[in-house]
Specification:
The complex is a heterodimer of chains A (170) and B (341). Chain A has 170 residues and is mostly helical. Chain A has 7 helices and no strands. Chain A folds into 2 domains: 128 residues, NADH-ubiquinone/plastoquinone oxidoreductase chain 6, subunit NuoJ (Four Helix Bundle (Hemerythrin (Met), subunit A), Up-down Bundle); 40 residues. Chain B has one domain. Helix content of chain B is 67%, strand content 2%. In chain B, strands 1-2 form a two-stranded antiparallel sheet. In chain B, a hairpin with a 2-residue loop joins β1 and β2. The longest helix of chain B has 35 residues. Chain B starts with a helix and ends with a helix. The interface between A and B is medium-sized, with 20 and 26 residues.
Chain lengths: 170, 341
């Protein structure tokens, strides 16, 4: 057991704990806070994998921007009374829970089959992949088409949002 | 010591933190004296010579005050919010290079706490987290003025973060790196980014004002409308932490502006003087401090010169002026780089 593995288990425990706390809290603001803790532990895991860029983007985009928006909306709507939001379990929901469990099990089995080798040390190539330079190069050479298509999809989403918002206010 | 690198890092952290906290205390005094001078008053000049012990007296007073938490407040988050604010404000400084190298006791020490590959992104990520302190304190106080302050703060931060990030990209394109020490090195001589990226400089400074909640962008704590905004319900040391983090944020912003646009620790004629290495390093640090000081003075003078924006003016400036301006600057920079390289 080296330090990194111990650290990984600590962070993994924190991630799972915060995720559970996130869905069990009654207060939506507390849920948001635990989700932020969860994002942070994910970012630390990326760092453990030497993916500095992904780690910082995780914090910058998810913890820093998206969750601020979440918090903003929750505070603006003042979602205090969550008792009205609780619903009784219906057949549809039971089926949904069942299906999710099946997908989760599939994922677990798949992961078990895929990660046959139990090497814990990272190759030099994997370490070099995590830097901003290599991700930028990969995005603009090998993956330039998916990258551009993603940006077009995002633009379409933006235009769609503006159209929907305008219709509501007219 | 088994691991000298780690030991040196620890010493650097302690030294920088102590200097930062002392500097912050005296920035408060400087601000009060300067504000007084601008308003034709005298300002605090009684405690010690010219009021030099005033920060100490202030801290003592804050420590001795009772910590009051409103009955209907969320105690945990009420306590947590100032801690978030201050830790974000202090840790941002970690990637700022305040000098080149210095040789002490046979060790070559880099005058920067952490040189990380993602550099500027680290700063952007941390500043985007700073908003939690303000927003959560506003919510946890369970007071409508606080809540409005917190809401304003989050809306303001989201609006100006984009402009801030985009105005940095021009600098990154010129330096070809996200690392702050490389950005400083790229500005050798008179190639300071303030001359190469004037629009980027202006938009970044305006965004920095907005992100630090300084006047003319201090809507989260606008006194005439919101009492004291997000920290209305704070007293004692917890209020002190908010106060401290505001000034620490200001100091860090000034240091970042210096690093990105004013050539960091470089002075153009300094390297040609033929000074011994040790003194050269010290002069580099001195040059950095001098530049930060000038930017700080600018921040303070602006506060007492320009009145506060109205809320719609703030949003219009952020989305309709700053954002298009930074994008145009980005395109122009890319075009020029393509033409001349």
């Amino acid at each position: 057991m080296n330090v990194e593995i111990i650290f990984f288990f600590l962070i993994a425990a924190l991630a799972i704990l915060s995720a559970i706390l996130m869905i069990t809290r009654r207060n939506p603001i507390m849920s948001v806070l635990y989700l932020i803790v969860n994002f942070f532990s994910l970012a630390v895991m990326y760092l453990l994998l030497h993916a500095q860029f992904i780690a910082i983007i995780q914090i910058l985009v998810y913890a820093g921007a998206i969750m601020v928006l979440f918090l903003f909306v929750i505070m603006l709507l003042n979602l205090g009374d969550e008792a009205r939001l609780t619903e009784r379990p219906t057949l549809k929901k039971m089926i949904a829970v069942g299906l999710t469990t099946v997908v989760l099990l599939q994922l677990l089995v798949g992961l078990r089959l895929l990660t046959a080798s139990d090497s814990t040390s990272l190759s030099a190539h994997a370490t070099a992949m995590g830097t901003v330079e290599s991700i930028g190069k990969a995005l603009f050479t090998d993956y330039v088409l998916p990258f551009e298509i993603t940006s077009v999809i995002l633009l379409a989403a933006m235009v769609g949002v503006i159209v929907l918002a305008k219709k509501k206010f007219q | 010591m088994r691991n000298p690198e780690m030991f040196i890092s620890l010493i650097k952290i302690v030294v920088v933190l102590v200097i930062m906290l002392t500097a912050v205390a005296y920035i408060v005094l400087l601000e009060r004296r300067l504000a007084a001078a601008i308003q034709n008053r005298i300002g605090p000049n009684r405690v010690g010579w010219q009021g030099f012990l005033q920060p100490l007296a202030d801290v003592l007073k804050l420590v001795l005050k009772e910590d009051i938490v409103p009955k209907s407040a969320n105690k945990f988050i009420h306590d947590l919010a100032p801690v978030i604010s201050i830790s974000v404000a202090l840790t941002t400084f970690a990637v700022v290079p305040f000098g080149d190298h210095i040789t002490l006791f046979g060790q070559n020490i880099k005058l920067q706490i952490a040189s990380v590959n993602v550099g500027i992104l680290y700063i952007l990520a941390l500043t985007s987290l700073g908003v939690y302190g303000v927003t959560l304190s506003g919510w946890a106080s369970n007071n409508k003025y606080s809540l409005l302050g917190g809401l304003r703060s989050s809306a303001q931060m989201i609006s100006y973060e984009l402009a801030m990030g985009l105005s940095i990209i021009g600098v990154v394109m010129l330096a070809g790196s996200l690392e702050l020490d490389k950005i400083v090195q790229a500005q050798a001589g008179w190639k300071w980014n303030i001359f190469l990226q004037p629009i980027g400089f202006i938009t970044f400074v305006v965004a920095a004002f907005a992100e630090t909640n300084r006047l003319p962008f201090d809507l989260p704590e606008a006194e005439p409308e919101l009492v004291a905004g997000y920290h209305t319900e704070y007293s004692g040391l917890k209020f002190g932490l908010f106060y401290l983090s505001e000034y620490a944020n200001m100091l860090t912003s000034c240091a970042i502006i210096t690093t990105l646009f004013l050539g960091g620790w470089q002075l153009p004629f300094l390297d040609g003087l033929g000074l011994p290495d040790f003194w050269l390093s010290l002069f580099h640090v001195g040059a950095f401090c001098l530049k930060v000081g000038v930017v700080l003075l600018f921040f303070i003078v602006i506060r007492w010169t320009i009145p506060r924006f109205r809320y719609d003016q703030l949003m219009n400036l952020g989305w309709k002026v700053m954002l298009p301006l930074t994008i145009a600057n980005l395109l122009a920079t890319g075009f020029v780089i393509l033409l001349f390289e």
